[in-house]
Amino acid sequence: MTEPMINKLESAVQSLIEQNHQLKEQVRELQDKNENLQLEHSEKEERYNRQQQRIQEILAQLSDSAV
Questions:
Q1: Could you tell me if residue 18 is inside a domain?
Q2: Which residues form a coiled coil (predicted)?
């Protein structure tokens, strides 16, 4: 293998290593974002359930007072 070919291969390998580091960083960022979105979704779901429960309680009170 000639010196220029070796240099090209080394350059290509270095480029791939850098791309790999960038992709790993992107994966970490997306994992963090996903975790935050899941937490946010869970909080909204809990709030929705509490609101639904409160609505049912109010409807029951209204029903009782209408009798």
A1: no
A2: 6-61
Rg (CA), the chain: 29
What total of structural domains would you count in the chain? 1
pLDDT at 67: 66
Please write down the HEC assignment for all residues of 8-50. HHHHHHHHHHHHHHHHHHHHHHHHHHHHHHHHHHHHHHHHHHH
Task: Give the range of the structural domain holding residue 40, as residue numbers without chain letter.
Answer: 32-67
CA distance 31 to 26: 8
Supply the pTM of this predicted model. Answer: 0.69
